[in-house]
Amino acid sequence: MRKICSLILLLVVAFACDNSRENPIDRNNIILSTDSDQLSARINRSNAGVVQIVNPAFASGRVSEDEIPSGKIPMALVAQADAPSYSGKSLRATHVDINGDYAYVSYNKEGADFLGAIEIYDISEPTKPRITAQAIFTTADINAIKYHQGRLHIAAAYDVDAEPTIETAAQYLTVSVANGGFTSEFVRANIAGSASIGVTIAGERAAVASGSDGVLALFDSNQETIITTPVQDLRDVAYGSNTIATLSGTEGISLWSPSNLSALSKIALDQDTPEAKRTLDMAEGLLFASEGANGAGVYALPAGSLVKRIPIVLNPEGVDTEDIVTNAVSFDEGLLLMANGGAGVSVVEVLDNQTLETLGFIGLEGSSNFVKIKGKHLFVASGTGGLQILELIRKEDIPAPVVPAINCENTSPYTGSSNLNVNSNDNMRFTGSAALSNVNVNGTLTFCGSVAIWDQLNINSRGLFEMSGSFAHGRNINSRMHLNGHLKINGSVVIYGDLVMNSNSKLEFVGENNSITVYGNVTKNNGATVTGNFNDTEGKLK
To answer: Does the keyword tRNA-binding apply (predicted)?
Structure first.
């Protein structure tokens, strides 16, 4: 059967039926793997390291480096994962959901073939993600995924010719998961349409959207259909603030009651490009929508009034205009991420009073098709280019020491340049989070919080750098940290490049629960010392 994309008009009349967990999927068409070493071989860290959020106002290079302010969000690319393949056919990542120590990633295949996958990533060690389980679907695309109370809720599109027991191409699946593995059969439910394209949880119900001439449907906990309502050209569904929201390429945004799908209100949008992926996300009282070339829209709930439309801040040379579009949005803990295709990923800060500030963009490889942020984890899907996995170093994620080992009193937030120079007579004391380009320490620098340094860190012979919290430096490629003076640490350190400890330099760990990870080489010259209690995760300082 020729594959009918979720956003192409149906040529047949589709229908929906009630279903229950008595409908397992044919396991012969699902290939399971739990060989974590083999699966994780697709993950590489060759490009890992601190990344910059580039403020668009300073991207042209027309100002000096010292005029560029520091960033607010320390961030590092920890790994990249190639997309899985089956029988020589490469898949593309379509969706990510994150819960606790695990990330759940869905995949499909562009073109006529029905082929998809779900993978589980163990992200308990943020800088060392591993794939713990994989399910390849040889007769279905997997378009979206949602974790809720030990189960994955899945939006899929099936080849009905290859699955004779399935009545509609659009399917809503569930499976139990625990400890990084699949722990039950995959169970199905029919839904009208050619493809399920979005799924969310509204209380104890699942809201599932199918594209083109499909529907928005509510299912109970037994995957029995409660109610459906037709909606043209659906792209996504989301739930929050006691409201279900749908995004249509032709009808804009619709808001629905989660109890009976009665229509609450509509938000008019420009008609969108056919077949384009778009997503929604929610915060308390706010709705975020990806709106293609128009960027992202932010709307107040329940009225649906426009708060702000956020344009795409970058127009890179050599990128087709059609690829400079906001494909997806994701919100968590005051940060909105926009996946802007060939224009990278925009980072927007959302303040309590609904004030929004575009902090800048992250330059990543490939076209950014999907983005998911949750806590300190950030996943960006780049089509067949696979996944980019990043860590945000948030100050609030750093546990306070029981007995402070570094004096953090009389500190103030750092608001200076991205190039921090501490002169020999300076005693600088800062707190908070900072993303810096270069740091040169000749005097005394105390920082309590989280810091990421993208380029150079030099602690000179009379310099003292006291760091309490979380600290990251450099990149795996051509990066080197020079220590001539004294670095005192209470917390965690990740050095993505080399560490050079010159003669008589000191690396001192104070207090408890300290760790250091050095991915490059360590050079210790005459008189260099390392003292204190710490976990050397890579064994480089022995």
So the answer is: no
